[in-house]
């Protein structure tokens, strides 16, 4: 240390000697402060600062050495166990200085701090005690690029000195500064200078600076600011409090001077309003649902909380007269982040919508149209029912009665209820509860009987009428009700805004998850690693479980070694992907102007809003068009439509499973409860479990082939396995074992032989690894209310290795099984499709029409077809077509002892047995199903039958009542088959009648004693119009689709419209015009 002091003193003398005249006397440290030259004075202060730094460093190192000696002595005296001693001696070393050269940072050494900031870019480590003596200076210009480190350090020190010199006695200021360093990595191209951290010797200096802070503007200009050194957590809390203060000032009209910060708490007029926490601002009172509505066609009202996912969006909202149809997706109406409930009309006009933030659990409890009623239940700590209503003026008596009846039942419950919407009752005098029309008078009686409150006191229509109402038995929890000027020209109703205190809602926060990055893998190295793996224990074993566990261990080890792990953070933005920075900026400007127009609706503001809104719409449309075009170009380059399909799925995909699901009286909200509820429902559709037959008991049964011509064994070679592995689709999902198809495909060379041994052993021993029999089921929504469990179907994720074995068995038996499959079956068969079935059906229809015959077609649907196949009867049918021996025993093992569990957001349910059905998502499942229902066409004697998997179409020409009796007789035969195998779903079975006669023969048909409904499908209505049109034009015969010189595609184009024509059709609901 003494050497460094002498060095700096010598440097000072030599430096000043060069700057002074040759005859000037030598200058030492004690005479420099008296010099008149300000330049020398600043140099002197800088060198004195460095000497103080050296002294502080020496003092700190001495303190650290003393601490080490004390800790060592304490550790030697401790009589604890070895593990405790190690912990006690190691733990204090976290505070010790690292003597690793200049790359380590010491908070008390500014030279080291600056060097390391500019090399690494990390923030200076500072503890809580040190922060009290720190200040951070912003806006001080940095030295130009190319200057040395020493010059930059002197420049920063002199700049800080010049700023605070007017605030403190300059004679003592230079000795008060201990650290002066830039924060962050040096970037010469940056326009914003890095802040400077300054550490002082005492708190009194900082207090003096803040006491004289008003001198800052006159001494250094307006670009420099000073604040205390806050920790990362304190800065985050400060940001949260500032946002909440801004919201209170702009939205609630609270004066800024009445809002105070104390630590992480916010006070209004001395009362605690809330605190900044990990999840954001936490109000001290229950969360409110407030109101500013999204654009709507007619009468909107909504609710928006202080703590919604997007502060500019409401937490809940309702819209009446949506004019939506089922062809519109929810995302075309509202952004993501909402659970949308709709009641659409199939006809023009009407419709209501109710949207709730997706993190608020809500369940649909009622929905109807004409009148439009939609009710949901908020599943929060104190449940609340929200109901939106729209009834058109001069509705029918039945509509009025239906609405009043439901409102009576709704308010009869003990739950809080809020009913809002467009009632179209302008004649009601709410002060006296009197009205002139019958419906309005009955509505007044309902309000009086249930002691309800009507919260709207102002006109809600531009003509001065109060049409939109809020009826509730929950008045104490509704506040800030206001009727606002609607900024949307398409609505003649005003915007209704209110706060609903609905209890606290716990918002779930997604945590980053880890995943494997299979696109950045050294697959050659992984293949070599598996080639070097010792699989000899597998080859010497005949135990399928052991062989699979050994192969699985090798593959998982290779995955851990070669596949990197990446952290995935959920994308929280509710905006589409084509929203860039400029669009987000324009959107914020429009929202700001919209709030300004609500408070000050001057013509200038409204005009500005209109222009900004129009510009934003054009920009959004252009950005979306460019984004879609880029996807198309990328797909053309990649020769794959995966990006386009992913974009379409992102548009139509909603939250697959709502926060609350129900099945009858049962409901579930947590992931585990939902998974168990889904699993119990999927289990309930299975057929009862019967005992499996033995192969010996089947020898007496008739077979369709001779015993010597059957199929009893198959053999695989490594080349067969290699081909199956290389043909895997790498984009498919992996099973529960964690092994995906990409790894199997890329490592086929190393895995083909051990897997071949596993597959041959499995078939020879008629045994399948138990892990392959576990179904990890994912619920997939079919149609209807998403909160109802019965509206989902199960899709199983099976092991990819088991699918490889299924593919090999399928390829070996398909040529043998295909001749047994009926020619009436067009599903899951090579060379057959729905198009061929359609052509055959239309050909028969045309033929009957030409012969002046009526055609009755009956469509039958099997109830839970794939899940209801009885295993014992399926095995009998396999034996009947000649599958015997060890192959039949293998199928018996394949179907038996299977279990399933349901996965909801990574949470698994308990396991339940799979007692019937074929595995959905498997390779062999569809083929086994075709074998099971293959005898359906052979049951009929008079009619024609066409099948596509489980969808059955029965039709017959009708010229006399006897033809109808023949059709009914064959239906009775099919009904008898369904009683012994799989039941028909009568609710989805229907009749379609094709006839050009003005008075067709009307005959009713029954199945299982239930009459079939006569249906009029639009596509067949269009077909009949085409037939009538062609008959009017000429009497030529219609196209014979059985002509041999026409290809299937040529016949299709001659009879049905192309997909391009369908897309060009102006109507979204009918294709009648195409004919």
TrEMBL record:
Residues 290-305 have a biased composition (Low complexity). Residues 71-129, 288-316 are annotated as: Disordered. GO terms for molecular function: catalytic activity. SUPFAM superfamilies: DNase I-like (SSF56219). Residues 761-1012 form the Reverse transcriptase domain. It comes from the Eukaryota. Residues 71-90, 101-118 have a biased composition (Polar residues). This is Reverse transcriptase domain-containing protein.
């Amino acid at each position: 240390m003494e050497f460094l002091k002498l060095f700096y003193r010598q440097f000072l003398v030599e430096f000043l000697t060069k700057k002074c005249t040759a005859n000037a006397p030598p200058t030492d440290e004690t005479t420099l402060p008296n010099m008149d030259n300000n330049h020398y004075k600043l140099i002197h202060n800088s060198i004195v600062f460095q000497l103080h730094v050296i002294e502080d460093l020496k003092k700190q190192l001495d303190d650290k050495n003393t601490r080490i000696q004390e800790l060592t002595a304490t550790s030697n005296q401790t009589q604890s166990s070895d593990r405790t001693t190690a912990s006690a001696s190691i733990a204090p070393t976290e505070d010790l200085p690292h003597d690793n050269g200049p790359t380590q940072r010491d908070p008390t050494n500014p030279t080291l701090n600056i060097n390391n900031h500019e090399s690494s870019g990390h923030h200076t480590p500072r503890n809580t005690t040190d922060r009290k003596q720190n200040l951070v200076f912003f806006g001080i210009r940095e030295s130009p690029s190319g200057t040395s480190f020493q010059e930059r350090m002197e420049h920063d020190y002199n700049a800080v000195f010049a700023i605070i010199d007017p605030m403190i006695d300059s004679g003592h200021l230079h000795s008060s500064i201990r650290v002066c360093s830039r924060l962050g990595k040096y970037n010469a191209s940056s326009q914003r200078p890095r802040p400077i951290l300054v550490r002082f010797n005492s708190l009194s200096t900082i207090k003096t600076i803040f006491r004289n802070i008003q001198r800052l503007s006159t001494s250094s200009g307006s670009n420099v600011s000073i604040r205390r050194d806050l920790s990362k957590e304190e800065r985050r809390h400060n940001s949260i409090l500032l946002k909440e203060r801004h919201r209170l000032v702009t939205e609630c009209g609270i004066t800024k001077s009445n809002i105070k910060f104390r630590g992480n708490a916010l006070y209004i007029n001395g009362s605690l309003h809330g605190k900044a926490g990990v999840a954001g601002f936490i109000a001290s009172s229950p969360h409110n649902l407030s109101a500013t509505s999204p654009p709507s066609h007619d009468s909107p009202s909504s609710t928006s909380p202080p703590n919604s996912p997007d502060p500019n969006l409401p937490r809940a909202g309702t819209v009446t007269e949506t004019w939506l149809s089922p062809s519109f997706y929810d995302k075309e109406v509202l952004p993501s982040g909402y659970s949308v409930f709709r009641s659409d009309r199939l006809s023009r006009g009407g419709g209501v919508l109710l949207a709730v933030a997706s993190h608020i659990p809500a369940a649909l409890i009622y929905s109807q149209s004409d009148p439009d009623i939609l009710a949901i239940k908020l599943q929060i700590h104190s449940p609340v029912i929200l109901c939106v209503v729209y009834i058109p003026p001069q509705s029918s008596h039945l509509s009025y009665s239906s609405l009043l009846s439901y409102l009576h039942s709704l308010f009869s419950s003990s739950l809080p209820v809020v009913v809002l919407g467009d009632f179209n009752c302008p004649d009601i005098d709410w002060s006296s509860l009197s009205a002139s029309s019958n419906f309005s008078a009955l509505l007044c009686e309902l309000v009086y009987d249930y002691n309800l409150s009507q919260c709207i006191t102002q006109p809600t229509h531009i003509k001065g009428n109060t049409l939109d109402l809020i009826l509730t038995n929950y008045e104490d929890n509704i506040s800030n009700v206001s009727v606002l000027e609607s900024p949307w020209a398409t609505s003649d109703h005003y915007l209704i805004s209110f706060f609903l205190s609905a209890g606290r809602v716990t918002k779930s926060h997604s945590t980053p998850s880890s995943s494997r990055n299979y696109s950045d893998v050294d697959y050659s190295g992984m293949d070599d690693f598996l080639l070097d793996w010792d699989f000899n224990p597998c080859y010497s074993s005949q135990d399928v479980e052991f062989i699979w566990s050994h192969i699985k261990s090798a593959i998982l080890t290779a995955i851990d070694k070669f596949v990197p792990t990446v952290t995935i953070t959920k994308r929280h933005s509710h905006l589409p992907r084509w929203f860039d920075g400029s669009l987000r900026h324009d959107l914020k400007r429009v929202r700001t102007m919209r709030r300004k127009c609500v408070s000050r609706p001057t013509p200038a503001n409204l005009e500005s809003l209109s222009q900004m809104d129009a510009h934003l719409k054009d920009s959004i449309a252009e950005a979306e068009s460019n984004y879609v075009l880029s996807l198309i170009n990328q797909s053309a380059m990649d020769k794959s439509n995966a990006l386009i399909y992913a974009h379409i799925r992102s548009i139509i995909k909603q939250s697959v499973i709502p926060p609350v699901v129900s099945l009858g009286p049962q409901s579930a909200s947590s992931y585990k409860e939902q998974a168990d509820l889904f699993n119990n429902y999927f289990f309930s559709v299975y057929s009862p479990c019967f005992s499996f037959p033995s192969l010996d008991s089947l020898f007496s049964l008739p077979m369709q082939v001779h015993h010597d011509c059957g199929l009893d064994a198959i053999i695989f070679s490594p080349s067969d396995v290699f081909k199956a592995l290389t043909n895997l689709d790498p984009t498919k999902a992996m099973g529960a074992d964690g092994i995906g198809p990409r790894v199997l495909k890329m490592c086929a060379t190393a895995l083909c032989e051990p897997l071949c041994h596993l597959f041959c052993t499995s078939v020879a021993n008629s045994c399948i690894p138990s892990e392959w029999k576990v179904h990890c089921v994912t619920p997939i929504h079919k149609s209807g209310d998403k909160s109802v469990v019965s509206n989902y179907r199960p899709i199983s994720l099976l092991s990819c290795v088991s699918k490889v074995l299924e593919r090999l068995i399928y390829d070996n038996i398909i040529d043998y099984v295909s001749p047994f499959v009926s020619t009436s079956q067009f599903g899951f068969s090579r060379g057959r499709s729905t198009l061929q079935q359609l052509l055959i059906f239309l050909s028969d229809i045309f033929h009957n029409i030409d012969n002046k015959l009526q055609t009755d077609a009956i469509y039958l649907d099997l109830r839970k077809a794939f899940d209801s196949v009885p295993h014992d009867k399926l095995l009998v049918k396999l034996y009947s077509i000649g599958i015997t021996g060890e192959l039949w025993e293998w199928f018996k093992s394949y179907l038996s002892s299977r279990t399933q569990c349901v996965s909801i957001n990574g949470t698994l349910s308990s396991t339940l047995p799979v007692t019937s059905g074929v595995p959905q998502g498997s390779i062999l499942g569809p083929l086994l199903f075709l074998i099971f229902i293959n005898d359906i066409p052979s049951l009929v004697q008079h009619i024609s039958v066409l099948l596509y998997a489980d969808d059955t179409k029965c039709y017959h020409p009708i010229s006399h009542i006897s033809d109808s009796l023949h059709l009914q007789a064959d239906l009775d035969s099919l009904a008898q088959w369904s009683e012994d195998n799989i039941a028909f779903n009568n609710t989805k079975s229907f009749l379609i009648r094709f006839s050009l006669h003005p008075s067709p023969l009307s005959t009713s048909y029954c199945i299982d004693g239930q009459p079939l409904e006569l249906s009029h499908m639009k596509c067949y209505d269009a077909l009949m119009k085409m037939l009538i049109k062609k008959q009017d034009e000429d009497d030529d015969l219609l196209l014979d689709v059985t002509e041999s010189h026409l290809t299937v595609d040529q016949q299709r184009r001659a009879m049905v419209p192309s997909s391009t024509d369908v897309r060009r059709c102006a109507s979204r609901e009918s294709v009648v015009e195409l004919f």
